[in-house]
Amino acid sequence: MLTNKQIQTFNQNGFVVIKNFINSRQRKLLMRRAEQLIDEFQPPSKHSVFSTDEQERTSDDYFLNSGDQIRFFFEEKAIDQNGNFTVPKQKSINKIGHAQHILDPIYKEVINELNFPKLGKQLGIKTPRALQSMHIFKQPSIGGEVGLHQDSCFLYTEPMSCIGFWFALEDANEENGCLQAMTGGHKIPLKKRFRLSENGGTEFDLLDDTPWP
């Protein structure tokens, strides 16, 4: 349950930090379950890399068709030109996504306990829906940089209504890849929109080319 002050902070800054949002039991459950899923995962002959380069990412059908699946995406530097792992499998994954909240009982249990629909309503969404879930790993040495972006570019609605709920499962800071947000970023026009193109591929529509503040 958000306080009035937290709601005011969210409306003013575009984000709010909720301390102790997830408890130790929930955190350990998710971390253990992620390890189990990776252990059970048998990589296909063609590995899918989650590239921070948008052109590579948008051409990957494995990524585009993952909305109702639990799929595994590798770091760019985790696999060499011959298709061999450069690091152990447990250290090669960039993220797991995008339907754990629907398909996996452990993720579903924890996410239901956190009651995101109630939080969404407090933040102004009339009918909150969980569209996707991601477990993101910040792997040492091989992790790619994720640049400044707007989630509504990928989860587009009219009017914009996308709200992301992120929580760290381990201590995070600027030295090890913590999440960062731009104060007032929610008031900036949407820069671009990710969409399917007529030829069956994907593309970005440029909506606003003014520089970031």
Fold blueprint:
Elements lengths: L3 H10 L10 H17 L13 H5 L2 H4 L5 E5 L18 E6 L1 H4 L1 H10 L1 H7 L10 E4 L55 E5 L5 E5 L7
Antiparallel strand pairs: 1-2, 2-3, 4-5
Structure description:
By secondary structure, the protein is an alpha+beta fold. The protein has a single domain, classed as q2cbj1_9rhob like domain (Jelly Rolls, Sandwich). Strands 1-2-3 form a three-stranded antiparallel β-sheet. A two-stranded antiparallel ribbon has the order 4-5. A hairpin with a 5-residue loop joins strand 4 and strand 5. The longest helix has 17 residues. The two termini are 32 Å apart. The model has no long low-confidence stretch (mean pLDDT 90).
Quick recap of the structure?
Helices cover 27% and strands 12% of the residues. With 213 residues, the chain is α+β, with helices and mostly antiparallel strands.
Mean pLDDT across the residues is: 90
User: First CA to last CA: what distance?
Assistant: 32 Å
Q: What proportion of the residues is helical, as a percent range? A: 25-40%
Low-confidence stretches: none
Give the beta-strand count.
5
The order of strands across the largest sheet is 1-2-3
CATH class: Mainly Beta
CATH topology: Jelly Rolls
**CATH architecture label:** Sandwich
Organism: marine metagenome
Pfam families: PhyH
GO molecular function: metal ion binding
Protein name: Phytanoyl-CoA dioxygenase
Protein traits:
about 210 residues, alpha+beta, Jelly Rolls, two-stranded antiparallel sheet
